[in-house]
Structure to design on (160 residues):
């Protein structure tokens, strides 16, 4: 039976970055994903599924080491953003010149972010990744959670 400090169920953007953050905090992590490992290549066509990352997120990602793997040509850094409502005349403009930052953040393809996080996790000794695996049952015990995985393995963790 394997023991981990944390089991993260789901290797999407949030799960991957959470696994990195837990590992950087010195915790052993089991990262589970129902599907296959995501693939991405900088030469592939741009995806329309993107996220806007704030300057604070970019700084946090840099502290975790993700910035070492970014493909700058796939980031769209922005200094200003104008948002409006199509049913009224409400609108607002955000501008980095009104803040302590030189930029507000960056737009990034979700697949690129997941690839960057996966690249970083590949060299993270505290993280074990298991794809095509899920938690089929779990039981809350006194100081840990005991889980049975879809491949029959039983693991224990302090947090699921």
């Amino acid at each position: 039976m394997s023991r981990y400090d944390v089991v993260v169920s789901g290797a999407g953007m949030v799960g991957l970055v959470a696994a990195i953050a837990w590992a950087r905090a010195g915790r052993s992590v089991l990262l589970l994903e129902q599907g296959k490992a995501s693939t991405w290549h900088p030469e592939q066509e741009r995806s329309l599924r993107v996220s806007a990352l704030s300057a604070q997120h970019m700084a946090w990602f840099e502290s975790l080491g993700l910035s070492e793997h970014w493909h700058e040509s796939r980031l769209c850094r922005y200094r200003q953003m104008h948002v409006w409502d199509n049913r009224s005349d409400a609108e607002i403009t955000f501008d980095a010149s009104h803040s302590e930052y030189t930029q507000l953040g960056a737009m990034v393809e979700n697949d690129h972010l997941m690839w960057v996080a996966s690249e970083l996790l590949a060299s993270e000794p505290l993280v074990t990744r298991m794809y095509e695996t899920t938690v089929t049952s779990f039981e809350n015990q006194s100081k840990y959670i005991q889980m049975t995985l879809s491949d029959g393995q039983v693991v224990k963790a302090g947090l699921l």
Q: What stands out?
A: The longest strand covers residues 2-9. The longest helix spans residues 13-24.
